[in-house]
């Protein structure tokens, strides 16, 4: 942890140190692009508030949300330590700083990567109170547009029916046709 904190501290550079100025400009550019691509926190925070008794959604509204999604995935929130450093490099964005990730269990429509970065900050203290299973409705870039849990998630899964694909415990992709064999 100390190494990560130390690397993120920016020291003032000398005006004649061209390499340091270029390095600082590149870091700024990378961080600025990541910020532009990220979703606003307010948009996400409402999905992670403790709503254990959330009412089910209007069926027409839910059907419209499901139809407008590029991919739908049932995920489990897991500690990031579940992944090896190589898996973290392959599946997660370099700016994913959360200690938790989404492990994709099954999905409908387009196939997604097995692990997705968590797009909000969840502290260790809040983790036990957060719902662990979510249904994420993703756009074409596999960014979550809506997250459902509880009664709304159960209602959506009932509307969707059998999943089109899933991952086994070894991470192999299984399509719905493979399940029937």
For the report, how would you describe the main beta sheet?
7 strands, antiparallel
Rg (C-alpha, Å): 19 Å
Gap from first CA to last CA: 47 Å
Question: Outline, from the CA principal axes?
Answer: elongated
Helix-residue proportion: 25-40%
Report on this model:
By secondary structure, this protein is an alpha+beta fold. Helix content is 35%, strand content 22%. The protein has helices at residues 2-8, 18-37, 41-45, 59-68, 85-91, 150-160, 176-179, and strands at 71-79, 100-109, 115-117, 133-138, 144-148, 165-167, 173-175. A hairpin with a 5-residue loop joins strand 4 and strand 5 (144-148). It is elongated and about 65 Å long. The termini are far apart.
Short description:
The protein is an alpha+beta fold. The protein has helices at residues 2-8, 18-37, 41-45, 59-68, 85-91, 150-160, 176-179; strands at 71-79, 100-109, 115-117, 133-138, 144-148, 165-167, 173-175. Residues 1-6 have low confidence and may be disordered.
Could you name the key traits of this structure?
35% helix; 7-stranded antiparallel beta sheet; disordered N terminus; 181 residues; alpha+beta; elongated; 7 strands
Helices and strands, with pairings:
Blueprint: H1 2-8, H2 18-37, H3 41-45, H4 59-68, E1 71-79, H5 85-91, E2 100-109, E3 115-117, E4 133-138, E5 144-148, H6 150-160, E6 165-167, E7 173-175, H7 176-179
